[in-house]
Give the backbone structure.
Amino acid sequence: MKKYKAVFLISFLLFIYVVISAFFYCEAVSSNISNSLFRLHVIANSDSQEDQNLKYKVRDALLEYMNNLSKDCKTKEEVIEIAKSHTQEFKNIATNTIRNSGYNYDTNIEIGNFEFPTKTYGDISLPAGSYDALKVEIGEAKGQNWWCVMFPPLCFIDISSGVVPEESKQYMKDNMEEEEYALISSNEDPDMNFKFKLLEMFQF
């Protein structure tokens, strides 16, 4: 009995060690990934087709403006500083787009750290977690969300094409460790796929 108890205790301690190690690994990797990205989050007034179409109009107008502002930026910090200094302009653009489309919804613009679900952009997949983002709420903000990455620029319109610009990938490679980039890239490596599932499981 003592032998079985010892085996059980050792196995239990080994299990605890593996869980703790996995936890700290996922915490570090998830933090590094989120620290490399600045995202856009647009929330529609409702799920009606009209409100969803309006959401995309607001998205496109904001992206065009932001892309012009940040086209020469090389770091996430630069993009965030530009976004913060132009918050009122973002609000004006969103409001004008809404008014020109025949609606009277209010808008709320906020830059902060928000929770995101797992999302796939072409051949790049980002795990669920907390990310710095520009959040845009239209009207009652009770409709479906739209997410993308403003830096590096992954906010291409035709996500169905499954192609992420090579320049965007290079930005990500330059700002991430090799393993972190491998985790979010589409690949057939079972080890990377398993680690990605661990990130989703712990969800930081």
The first helix runs from residue 2 to 35. Confidence is low (pLDDT under 50) at residues 157-161. Residues 31-202 form one domain.
